[in-house]
Amino acid sequence: MDTTESETGKKKRVSGWLSIKSPDDVEKAITRAINKILASSDCINHVGKIASLANAWVNVRRLAIDAEEVRGIKDRLTKLEEDLTKRVSKLEGTK
């Protein structure tokens, strides 16, 4: 369970809670989980979990890189649209 209810009736987070709002947060959570497994005395028994978490980490990283590329493309497109608008305005002004 990720929350507990206090005596006042308010829910509060349990120790170790990590809020996930971005790909970076997912990376941190996965890294934390892998580190906990590796720190345990029987980490060999959890090789499948480590492999699965590592695969998830790679996918999250790939998603973050793709998102950065999309932002860059959007920025360049916006610049091109602004330049085109200026050129069209300039041409219309010369008619």
What's this, in brief?
The protein is mainly α and 95 residues long. Helices cover 67% and strands 6% of the residues. It has a two-stranded antiparallel sheet with strand order 1-2.
Question: How would you explain this protein's 3D organization?
Answer:
The protein is mostly helical and 95 residues long. The chain has one domain. The protein is 67% helix and 6% strand. The chain contains 2 helices and 2 strands. It has a two-stranded antiparallel ribbon. Strand 1 and strand 2 (11-13) form a beta hairpin. The longest helix is centred in the C-terminal third of the chain and has 47 residues, at 47-93.
Set down the secondary structure blueprint.
Elements lengths: L2 E3 L5 E3 L9 H17 L7 H47 L2
Antiparallel strand pairs: 1-2
Extract low-pLDDT stretches.
none
Strand order of the largest sheet: 1-2
User: Could you state the order of secondary-structure elements as H and E?
Assistant: EEHH
Helix content: 55-70%
What is the terminal separation in angstroms?
70 Å
Outline type:
elongated
Q: What structural class results from the helix and strand content? A: mainly alpha
| Proportion of residues in β-strands | 5-15%
Domain count: 1
Question: How large is the count of helical segments?
Answer: 2
Q: What's the rounded overall pLDDT mean?
A: 87
Number of strands: 2
| Largest sheet entry | 2 strands, antiparallel
- What is the radius of gyration? 24 Å
